[in-house]
Amino acid sequence: MAMGPVVGGIIGTSKFVYDFWGDTVNEASRMESSGVPGATQVTKPIHDLLKSDFRFESRGKVYLKGKGEAEAFLHHAENTGRVCIRDVDGP
Question: What is the Cα–Cα distance from 31 to 1, expressed in whole angstroms?
Fold first, then answer.
C-alpha cells in the first residue's frame, strides 16, 4: 500500500474501464509483490499516517524494482472490528 499523486482516466470506446497510472501505483504494486502472506505491507508515509490506529511491524528496507530500497512496515490482520477513515489532503 502506498499513497501519493496518481492520474486516472477512462480507457476504451465501447466498453469503458477506469484506471490509475503513476509512480504511486507502481510503488503500491511493488509493495504488494514483495510482501509476505497474511500481512499488508505499507510504505513509511502510510505507516506514519495510521500508526496511532493500527499496529505495524517494521520490516526494514526492502528492494522495490525500479525504485530501489524503501522502508516497509507490515500490518497483520486483526479481527477488532475497528475501521479508520481519514481525510488526507494532498501535499
Answer: 6
